[in-house]
């Protein structure tokens, strides 16, 4: 409890990280509140095409007459939703398997290591593309597919941490007192890894935002009529030089999200690290 | 020395003995997945007036009328003896995939080498001049590049190059550099008059995609190198070397630098797959006929053997990249070789 407050205080002193928190909070509030009163629907293509930004369409309209503001709000919602889902699913899976492998060693460790090797070798982009075709292109499927590749990273990091923690006296004494694997992992190992896990989960959100955008950009991510930030850029990038507003707004939001998350991750790392 | 090399060889062989079975399992899993993706001939079958008999013959030729498991072993046997099967358009997969691979691989290797050299250099400078201007600039640049998806960097570069070409034209340099100098599309038709001309054209065609692919790796390498360099600069043996009066440059390069390279070797091997997918996406921006366009064609057509050829070739590249990183690891850190 005392440590939590200490970490929080150190985090608050990290100026860039706090700026990241504020920027992200404003963005999340905006994409939640704007659709409540904004008159244009993101799927409504009945507007005149290629309207430059004006009072009615603050960010203009695209080639098929979609309101760009509504598009970007929806795209940001979905990109963030996918990224957070990926981070939660992948971190949970990775931490569970990684800590088990690091603590149990032996066969469990070998099995988990081979599994991570397998996922490293298989080209993500091809398999993700096939999976998007096999299943539907809904945001949840895309999130699950991305998670399937993402868990290896947190698994590898957690495994290393668990291995070194398992050597420590407090774990040995817990084992001598008769604690089982599940109890040692949840009560003794995980609380000592919160810093690493939190940093990794934050950075995973940032990377998942970009990964989803890349997948959408080759036309293999979220499928129409729904949209994500990557999808919006993909739909409009041919207009890049003539009508830059169609590119720079979704691009700007994407960079803002990713920068904010990277700063928060950095702040968290500093805040937790100072302990040792 | 001899024993040292023997240890390294044994170490590499052990890594290889682990990688090859993993790659085999990966091909089997992918084969099942590709087979589940759909019937590659569905579109031809549903076409009005389609000759069903001819399609049945084609399906038989592609062995699509067999079960997945026997089909896998037949494919694997053929694959290992150099016959990678044919695409549903009946082109040999081997030719199609390897020629596309040449394009992509050239891009990736060039970008990775450049990213490693510049990233390591910038990382060292940032660490040595910690919290000075150079460090802040390097940090800001790395953060910005990290936050951008690779295709956005490519798009911005492409737009910038269009303007740069206009300037080259305005300045009357087109005779020297060609018009347009920096190509924003595929490099296939590189007609040249002499070696100098070829070099200019080659640079013009490869410049933008290489920069785009390089950007993200560069950010990673420079951050990693900075962090590990700072760590080694704070170790006892570096302090001892300094106390002995060895010149600062010698301390930095002989004592700290070599050890600080080890984490970068790790990043290289973990990163390689990501860089490959980045290259695949970048090629789409510049309309190159590389692995990116083969992948999109193959996925859209559910083309089984074309997809398998693609997956195996990229997978094998990642395995080899990991081996290279392992060898660097062994060279940099003798402790790893033992045990």
UniProtKB/TrEMBL annotation, chain B:
Membrane topology: Multi-pass membrane protein
Subcellular localization(s) per the UniProt record: Cell membrane
Domain spans labelled ABC transmembrane type-1: 101-325
Keyword Ribosomal protein part of the UniProt annotation: no
Segments traversing the membrane: 12-37, 100-125, 137-157, 199-221, 260-281, 307-332
Top-rank lineage group of the source organism: Bacteria
Keywords of this entry: Cell membrane, Membrane, Transmembrane, Transmembrane helix, Transport
KW Cell membrane (keyword) present: yes
Pfam (any one): BPD_transp_1
Coiled-coil ranges (or none): none
PANTHER family per UniProt: DIPEPTIDE TRANSPORT SYSTEM PERMEASE PROTEIN DPPB-RELATED
Family per similarity comment: Belongs to the binding-protein-dependent transport system permease family.
Name of the protein: ABC transporter permease
């Amino acid at each position: 409890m005392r440590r939590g407050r200490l970490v929080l205080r150190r985090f608050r002193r990290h100026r860039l990280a706090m700026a990241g928190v504020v920027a992200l909070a404003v963005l999340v509030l905006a994409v939640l509140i704007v659709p409540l009163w904004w008159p244009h629907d993101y799927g409504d293509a009945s507007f005149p095409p290629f309207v430059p930004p004006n009072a009615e369409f603050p960010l203009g309209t695209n080639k098929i007459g979609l309101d760009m503001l509504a598009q970007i709000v929806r795209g940001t919602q979905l990109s963030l939703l996918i990224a957070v889902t990926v981070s939660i699913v992948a971190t949970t899976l990775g931490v569970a398997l990684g800590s088990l492998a690091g603590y149990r060693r032996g066969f469990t460790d070998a099995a988990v290591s081979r599994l991570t090797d397998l996922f490293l070798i298989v080209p993500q982009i091809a398999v993700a593309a096939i999976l998007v075709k096999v299943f539907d292109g809904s945001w949840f499927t895309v999130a699950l597919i991305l998670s399937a590749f993402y868990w290896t990273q947190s698994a590898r990091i957690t495994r290393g941490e668990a291995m070194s923690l398992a050597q420590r006296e407090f774990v040995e004494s817990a084992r001598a007192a008769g604690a089982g694997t599940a109890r040692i992992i949840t009560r003794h190992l995980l609380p000592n890894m919160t810093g690493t896990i939190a940093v990794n989960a934050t950075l995973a959100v940032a990377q998942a935002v970009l990964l989803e955008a890349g997948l959408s950009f080759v036309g293999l991510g979220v499928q129409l009529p729904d949209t994500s930030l990557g999808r919006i850029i993909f739909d409009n990038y041919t207009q890049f030089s003539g009508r830059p507003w169609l590119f720079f707004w979704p691009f700007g939001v994407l960079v803002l999200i990713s920068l904010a998350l990277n700063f928060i991750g950095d702040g968290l790392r500093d805040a937790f690290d100072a302990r040792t | 020395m001899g024993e040292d090399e023997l240890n390294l060889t044994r170490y590499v062989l052990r890594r290889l003995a682990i990688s090859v079975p993993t790659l085999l399992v990966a091909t089997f899993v992918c084969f099942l997945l590709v087979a589940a993706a759909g019937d590659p001939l569905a579109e031809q079958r549903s076409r009005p007036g389609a000759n069903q008999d001819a399609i049945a013959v084609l399906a038989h030729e592609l062995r699509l009328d067999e079960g997945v498991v026997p089909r896998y072993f037949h494919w694997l046997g053929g694959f290992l003896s150099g016959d990678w099967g044919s695409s549903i358009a009946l082109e040999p997969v081997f030719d199609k995939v390897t020629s596309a691979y040449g394009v992509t691989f050239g891009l990736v290797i060039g970008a990775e080498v450049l990213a490693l050299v510049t990233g390591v250099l910038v990382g060292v400078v940032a660490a040595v001049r910690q919290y000075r201007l150079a460090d802040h600039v390097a940090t800001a640049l790395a953060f910005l590049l990290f936050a951008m998806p690779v295709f956005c960097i490519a798009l911005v570069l492409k737009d910038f190059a269009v303007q740069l070409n206009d300037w080259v034209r305005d300045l009357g340099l087109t005779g020297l550099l060609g018009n347009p100098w920096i190509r924003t599309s595929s490099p296939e038709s590189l007609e040249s008059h002499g070696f100098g001309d070829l070099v200019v054209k080659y640079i013009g065609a490869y410049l933008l995609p290489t920069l785009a692919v390089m950007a993200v790796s560069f950010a990673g390498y420079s951050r990693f190198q900075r962090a590990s360099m700072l760590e080694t600069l704070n170790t006892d043996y570096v302090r001892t070397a300094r106390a002995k009066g060895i010149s600062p440059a010698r301390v930095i390069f002989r004592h700290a630098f070599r050890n600080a390279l080890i984490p970068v070797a790790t990043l290289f091997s973990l990163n390689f797959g990501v860089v490959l997918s980045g290259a695949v996406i970048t090629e789409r921006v510049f309309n190159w006929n590389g692995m990116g366009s083969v992948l999109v064609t193959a996925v859209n057509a559910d083309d089984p053997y074309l997809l398998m050829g693609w997956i195996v070739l990229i997978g094998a590249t990642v395995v080899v990249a990991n081996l290279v990183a392992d060898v660097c690891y062994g060279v940099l850190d003798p402790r790893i070789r033992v045990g």
